[in-house]
Amino acid sequence: MNSTPDISDKFPDLKFLNIQFKSFGAINFFYGQIVTAICPEDNSKIKKILNEPGNKKVLIVDGQASFKVALLGDLIADAAVKNNWSGVIINGCVRDVEVLKNIDLGILAIGAVPRKSEKLERGSLGEDIRIGDIRISDGNWVYADKNGVIISEKELELD
Known about the structure:
CATH class: Alpha Beta
CATH superfamily: Ribonuclease E inhibitor RraA/RraA-like
């Protein structure tokens, strides 16, 4: 079972994020335990956490659906791969899309813009976030692909 439709069929009560994300990374299906981040047009916290050991986790970023700046680019995505992260999901934008598509990382975001973010240490890590009408807690699990993003309170037994 390696797609969110298969998971949704097997676990129909699971919640999914009702936002249309675009896939920007080389990995199409990814999953892992969630680390949450709130990043109001500032990717300082993203850079910090993705430069730490990821242990196959997935960073989910509440970027407040902003199209003003990119919260992830090729350098930070490369750091995520080197530090063993499974993926990054951003309710916000990325940049360097021509490079991201070749990076072995699951990357979902709502769009792309060329402008980098300021680094002013705004935001936080590990707090509950809300994307769409779904509350996401640090430590939940996520399963994601081009079809969508499924959130679970615990790890699922996938076949």
